Amino acid sequence: MAENLLEIKDLHAGVEGKEILKGLSLSVDKGEVHVILGPNGSGKSTLMNIIMGHPKYEVTSGTVSFEGEDITELKTFGRARKGLFLSFQTPEEIPGITVENMIRTAKQAVSGERVKIVPFRRQLKATMEELKMKPEYAERYMNVGFSGGEKKRNEILQLLMLNPKLALLDETDSGLDVDAVQIVSEGVAKFHNEDNSCLIITHNTRILEKLKVDKVHVLINGEIVEEGGPELIDDINRRGFTHILDAKAEK
To answer: If 0-12 CB within 10 Å is exposed, 13-18 middle and 19+ buried, where does residue 123 land?
Structure first.
């Protein structure tokens, strides 16, 4: 029997008094890969930020549960410690702290255990090699002076090093060239196994090529209006969202 990891029920939420999510429900089991598709401005990034507990966003009703525990009111740090990870659409630059120190500090904070430097550095170096990142980037300040592609690879580096239970990937593949998308895709595939799950927002479905997608959700105007399997991705790639919008308007 599948073990539920994330359960969202009748979620109404928004920012600065504006409702963006309008009664959204979503369930992700352990080991699954879910994909969220939708036009710009549909509330996809808002959903990811709310799952991660971004303080800017307000939940007005509904619940977010993780491994059977209601985390609707839990702070972001607490969610990270429970095993949630968000890869940002536009990663922030953090002057003054190196990539190595940032990841080691995060790993220590999430696990609550002291991270031994030698094995950590060995793992970091090997993982960077897999992502085709130059080893000297470990000593550079976090994302400072990185290209768009380098920032996205750095997000996947953090994902692999922190090894969360649920990866929330918010257009991690956006703005990347073909080679970079391939590397990011391979990194996500390396992370995913039967003990964790992925919830992915993407406009470039090439990132999904090495993953077995279990369910696809179409989010439009703050509501999930259609769900299906991976065949729904092919349908939208072929026909876009217009036919779904038209069908919704007729109801």
So the answer is: middle
Q: What is the CA radius of gyration of the chain?
A: 18
C-beta of residue 181 within 8 angstroms of C-beta of residue 207: yes
65: β partners: 7, 70
| Phi (first) and psi of residue 87, to 5 degrees | -95, 120
166-170 β-sheet, strand order: 84-87, 166-170, 197-201, 33-37, 215-220, 223-228
Residues counted in the chain:
251
> What is the tens place of the pLDDT at every residue in 6-56?
999 999 999 999 999 999 999 999 999 999 999 989 999 999 999 999 999
Whole-number Cα distances in Å, 191 to 31, 35, 127, 194, 198: 11, 16, 11, 10, 9
Q: How many CB atoms lie within 10 A of CB 197?
A: 24
Q: What is the pLDDT of residues 132-178, one digit of tens each?
A: 999 999 999 999 999 988 999 999 999 999 999 999 999 888 888 88
- pTM confidence score: 0.93
Distance separating alpha carbons of residues 151 and 6, to the nearest angstrom: 27
C-beta separation of 203 from 22 below 8 A: no
Nearest to 191 by CA among 156, 216, 154: 156
- Give the CA angle between residues 223, 210, 216 to the nearest 5°: 15
